[in-house]
Design goal:
Layout lengths: L20 H10 L9 E7 L7 E6 L9
Antiparallel strand pairs: 1-2
């Protein structure tokens, strides 16, 4: 039996947080664009369902500082 191909990109973050799940969810979704000052986050696309995908675009103070 052949093994399915690995995903191109995968991110997994594990950290115990002493907070209500609803608060953690709100910070991860509604306030994501505040995580990287002085960078701005003009694009935030999140599919938070199991197996969903996400995309963020950040822009630094200089136009050449962008990350995607």
């Amino acid at each position: 039996m052949t093994k399915p191909p690995a995903p191109l990109h995968e991110l997994s973050i594990t950290r115990p947080i002493d907070a209500a799940p609803e608060s953690v969810y709100r910070v991860e979704t509604e306030r994501l664009c505040e995580w990287w000052p002085p960078y701005t986050t003009p694009v935030v696309e999140l599919d938070l369902r199991p197996g969903g995908r996400g995309r963020t675009v950040t822009q630094g103070p200089e136009p050449s500082d962008g990350l995607e």
